Amino acid sequence: MGRWRNSLEERWNEWVQVEDAVSLTLAGRSVLRVAGARTPRLLTPASKAVRITELNRVDGKYEAGLACFCLGEMPVEERPVFLAAWHERLGAGATAVLADRRSEGCESAMELHEMFAPVAAQLDVQVGRTFWWVRYRVRGE
To answer: How many angstroms from the chain centroid is the CA of residue 62?
Structure first.
């Protein structure tokens, strides 16, 4: 029982670190938050919050975007379509942050780097024991 409890506590502590980093990254910006079916609690307030299925109905541009537990829920071939639609609503220069569980969305830092490098400037990839997250500036055309 103790091992399971320690593992749960480690995962919780890791998620708190992700929350803190995301909150600092997005502070003071207008944020478009896209949520998957299993949306975690985050301290970061969103100017607009939508489900993945509602993204195409969002108007306007945002200074930042946050997508948690989205990529792991979609087939690999749908990920570029989602990212293109999301980046369109953010615009060039916007700050983008994505987070998910390891093994859901991607396993390694190299996979994440390969996925985001074509669309990202100042790409920062973080992979923990349980979660991964990336932050970057959306590249212009």
So the answer is: 15
Rounded to whole angstroms, the Cα distance separating 106 from 30 reads 27
Structure tokens at 115: 């996925």
* Nearest by Cα to 136 from 25, 46, 39: 25
Q: What is the pTM of this model?
A: 0.85
CA angle 87, 94, 18 (to 5 degrees): 95
Structurally, the chain folds into a number of domains equal to 1
Asked if residues 83 and 97 have their Cβ atoms less than 8 Å apart, the reply is no
The predicted-structure confidence for 114-139, as pLDDT tens digits, reads as follows 989 999 999 999 998 888 889 999 99
The residue range of the domain holding 86 is: 2-138
The position carrying tokens 């994440």 is: 112
CATH number at residue 35: 3.40.50.150
